[in-house]
User: Fold this.
Amino acid sequence: MAAEEEGLTGPDEARPAPEAGAEPAADARPEPSAEPLHEHRSGPRSVPELLLGRPPMARPLPSFDHQAAPAEPGPLFVDWLATALHAGVLDPQAFTLSTVDADGMPDARVLVLRDVDAAGTGWNFSAAADSPKGRQLAEHPAAALTVYWPQLGRQVRVRGTVERAADLVAAAEFATRSPAARVGALVGRQSEPLGSVAEYDEAEAVARRRLEAHPDAVAPGHAVYTLWAHEVEFWQGDAQRRHTRLRYTRTGPVSSPEWSRTLLWP
Ligand SMILES: Cc1cc2nc3c(=O)[nH]c(=O)nc-3n(C[C@H](O)[C@H](O)[C@H](O)COP(=O)(O)O)c2cc1C
Assistant:
């Protein structure tokens, strides 16, 4: 339970989705809901029934002028991320990290993107090295990163090799985290079977006391990773399925990357 909430868009930063053809007000905020969310149990119960008449991306979506795309993927990602924030996408920094385990079996989970370098070569995230994903990355240091921003019908796909940063880098990053996130990471044992919630409460209390006594404590398994992109694809969905896809492929080394651009069939 590292830092699921860390760095996510909170209600204060959330923006409502723009109406079709309308510019959202820069200071628009959604009304906070007075009612707690609860499971909706009435109505149709099968998956096809629930999804009937709800085709994906059936709404006005932005266009993507691939011919005006920059030479490197980094600036385009920043543009798209800023547009996602403006359009009210919640948690636009939440991405799916796909890895493979020792048996070659794929695995995937949502994490938080921490940073991307200017060129779009290095994509940073942090995780517990002793978690399943950390072990998978140690065995197969390669991964894919995928994000979908529904309000815009945009997907970004990144593939590359993964490198774990030095412990000093991880410690510095750990210090930037909220106390709750640091306590969660200090509890550790992510994804191990949990006997009871009381067991977790006890471990959390121990971790909290440890952090109070040693504010500089760093969770032993805390790791910062960089995915060095070989490919970055920008995918703009279209209700008529005329999706626009532009793939950047890195030809130069990480230290002086060069990128070629390829338009892909939808
Ligand atoms: C929006 C969101 C953000 C998350 N952020 C993180 C994160 O930054 N780090 C993390 O370890 N797990 C994060 N999680 C939890 C992971 O998806 C996953 O449950 C956990 O890391 C265990 O994965 P593993 O068993 O494959 O190692 C997040 C989950 C969600 C839904």
User: Anything to note?
Assistant: The helical segments are 47-51, 73-86, 132-139, 167-175, 179-187, 197-213. Residues 2-4, 91, 94, 107, 109-112, 127-128, 131-133, 190-191 surround flavin mononucleotide (CB under 6 Å).
